[in-house]
Write a structure and sequence with these properties.
The structure is a homotetramer. Chain A is α/β, with parallel strands linked by helices. Chain A has one domain: 3-Layer(aba) Sandwich (Rossmann fold). In chain A, the strands form two sheets. An eight-stranded mixed sheet of chain A has the order 1-3-6-7-2-8-11-9, sandwiched between helices. Strand 4 of chain A pairs antiparallel with strand 10 of chain B, so a sheet runs across the interface.
Chain lengths: ~250, ~250, ~250, ~250
């Protein structure tokens, strides 16, 4: 079996598309943001990626049907060199070696699609509740840093101190070796909950950069649900009995 | 050394056989069910699968002889397109990559045998004692879901929520990519003990689907042994001294 | 880099040699026994095996020189079809896959040397102190079981229940697939200490089987050291202050 | 993707260079020493090594730019057969197999550069504070042991007892198989903190061996910072409130 397989549903012709990636990670910020983007832009799925670097697992959908865990590629045609390719997925690679192989594989596919510019989305764990999340950045070259700063992205000295671990970082690092321009946008988040508010902050930057109009109602709705959960938890911590809705405590990814 | 080796004792000619798999897992439900099926149908072993994805281990049999841990393929000839191939074994692959390789390997062998339809058997851990286990299902296409429902299989919204991990799920997921029709039948089980009762529930569905008559005396006997053990355990939990048979507390797989 | 490398110091011509292996394991019984055998028989080292399946480690010898961790092959020429090949080493493979690869590699070398018969030595952990260790056996065929029984080897129903994990078992399991005759001899041992007494019990069987005379003074000396340590430990457990020799508490392998 | 990639910035012509390596490890002694050496000698970077055996991670520099984690090769031209190649890096290989592959890869590059003599630098964990660190050694041949002893290196019987684990040891062990002469210099260190003082002790030996003049001001400055931290910690242990500077408690690598 090949380590990584890609199944194309369609081979789109795109004009110098930019690439946006959001996978599960801290606060699920990247995944929430990228999925909201592809949903709102009615992006079209054109490829599925399977790999033995993912868990040996199928997901069971509500109709009783299964599908193998995967990453998915979508496209958005906007013309005038503003097409978009979005990668979302159930998992990142499980092992360091798998992470490298997957990032390298995705970059090879992106080069075939004519992608020159990458945006990877993620969360930046603060270890405390964040009222108004800033969006931190890291990039492959100085011009990009400047451009992103004009859109409110914060490039803070020594942040993140531990660097960026996982697919979001690796695409930048390996992409840079291939001459690609790439930015990682990280929404501040507590790290304790999935964080639709942080995902929205990231998307607000990205939509300015890409000149996109997005409706955020869905993310705001999810953010409210999370807010209710966290305030209930705070009540519990203060020794108060929450009266209802414990069953809401699901992981909204 | 090859990653996976298959040693054929015989190369059977089968008519459009269906495939049934049961390997160690939650409550050992799948393994108990598949082994009972092959024992009662006097299935004939025709191949042994060895792999470095299994533990580096030999088993010692009662006569002092050893055998390498393995998976085994059996066939049952019933004619009229109703032949059966059964896979049982000592272990699943130890690593995610090993799980993918093994599932892919088995699917390749099944295609050579003309298999188009797969049944994987397993347990569904409830985290509580289950008096009358239901059989939950997941399948590769909607027609199969409907067919299974007529045999009492439950396709519950959001169950199992975490999907199906391991060989039972992977055969469905990878099989679907190759156009095979596959169902996973999962017997509800506490997850605390091996569960012959759950295995019987799964087999009762499978025998209806495959139109097989099976004697369940052996499984019922094992179920009684487990019942005795669990009631003794409950006595101990209630602070009562069990009077006998602590030595019965073995793992009956 | 190759996964496994063998460096030959010499290419011995041997007459139908038998093979004896003892590697680190429970109570270090196998390693102690095989090293005592090769020392007493003044066996000649003829090959060193390096592998990336061993730890990334060098050992520092007393003269300040290093050597890479390794397995070693020795030969003993006794003529008349009674030559012996001994494998000892610093480590077993670290991963299941490494264990399989190493066992397969060793078996290929043994076939080139004309080996048909294997003896793997190990310990059998009892979880309690053992006054007079028995030697348990497991074998690839029934004739060997019988032969070993005449030398006092015990083939106990259901022992070891968990089978034999690691190199000692794998050489039997993989050797059997290649038509080799193989026995694993396991000395009972507590599993808490290295156990020269158990190693001696194993060697007493092996010397009868191979018709060898061995001096056991060195093993008996080590056994006494261990006895002193364990009696001191028992004093400590009983709340007595041991008066001397805490510095003896080393791991004598 | 290749397991290990090397990107050359320059292909230097060197005269019989010696090789010095210092990577992260106990007390970060080796890394501190090798980086100080290359900084003070104004060594020139000529190659970067990337590998999927490193963590899937990019580092974020103070200007907001990223770089993939890597190992780096520098050279120092001193002429007269006294050229130096220095390897420093962010990480060692994550897995045993990765460690072997990386060491083998580096040795192949060193052979191309004409390197015959290796110095690997590291720390030797004592488990207690060390006022005046000695430098322990281990080497591939007896002549090197003697030579190093004239420079004050201690070759202590049975030290280090567990051998040398990781890149420092492996380069010696694998280098020896290729006929290279190699020494590992290990500065004694507590193992609790990064230890610039121990790094300096190691470099004081190395500069004598290689006939180099080095300024140690920078290392001494770092050592003072660490001393301040550790004395504050001792105050805390004694129950005293440290008055300032808790924020100094960073890991200075």
């Amino acid at each position: 079996m090949e380590d990584i397989q890609i199944h194309f549903l369609e081979k789109p012709q795109l004009e110098d598309p930019v690439f946006v990636q959001g996978l599960p990670g801290i606060g699920n910020v990247g995944k929430l943001a990228a999925e909201h983007l592809k949903d709102e832009l009615k992006a079209v799925k054109f490829a599925e990626i399977y790999s033995k670097f993912f868990p040996p697992q199928v997901l069971v959908l509500d109709d009783g049907l299964i599908r193998l865990v995967q990453n998915e590629l979508y496209y958005v045609k906007r013309g005038k060199g503003r097409d978009i390719v979005v990668l979302v997925g159930d998992y990142q690679g499980l092992t360091p070696e798998g992470q490298y192989e997957l990032a390298d594989f995705v970059l090879a596919e992106l080069r075939k699609l004519g992608v020159q510019r990458l945006f990877t989305l993620g969360g930046y764990g603060m270890g405390r509740m964040v009222a108004k999340p800033r969006v931190l950045g890291a990039a492959t070259d100085a011009a990009l840093v400047k451009e992103m700063e004009t859109h409110g992205v914060v490039f803070a000295r020594g942040e993140p101190g531990a660097g960026i671990v996982g697919a979001s970082g690796l695409l930048l690092g390996l992409g840079k070796l291939h001459g690609m321009k790439a930015v990682c946008l990280m929404g501040e988040t507590s790290g304790y909950f999935v964080d639709p508010k942080s995902a929205q902050a990231v998307l607000e930057v990205l939509t300015k950069v890409l000149d996109i109009q997005l409706d955020f109602a869905e993310l705001e709705h999810k953010a409210k649900q999370i807010d209710q959960i966290t305030s209930k938890l705070r009540e519990v911590e203060r020794g108060e009995e929450p009266r209802e809705g414990k069953e809401d405590l699901g992981y909204i990814g």
